[in-house]
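QA checklist item 7 of 12: single-chain prediction sanity check.
[x] sequence parsed
[x] length recorded as 81
[x] structure emitted
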Amino acid sequence: MATDTTDRPVTVTPLLYRCSEAAIALGVSQSQIEIWRREGLLHAVRLPGIRAIRFARWEVEALAAAWSEAAGASAPQEDAQ
């Protein structure tokens, strides 16, 4: 019996966002992401063995969806400094 050995492209969706990716997904600056992390609005995941933090994709997407579903409301504004 012959098997299909055709290479098919595979799309891999990352489970974690870098700070810059989370900022793009939410339409805010990276500094705002850091503020929200310190305030507990977004929870950071520290990667073992390296000094990097990431944000769970599901959490970022849930936050973006909650903002878009809110009637007449937009994403929280960045703190004016």
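[x] summary fact logged: The CA atoms of residues 62 and 68 lie 10 Å apart.
[ ] second reviewer sign-off
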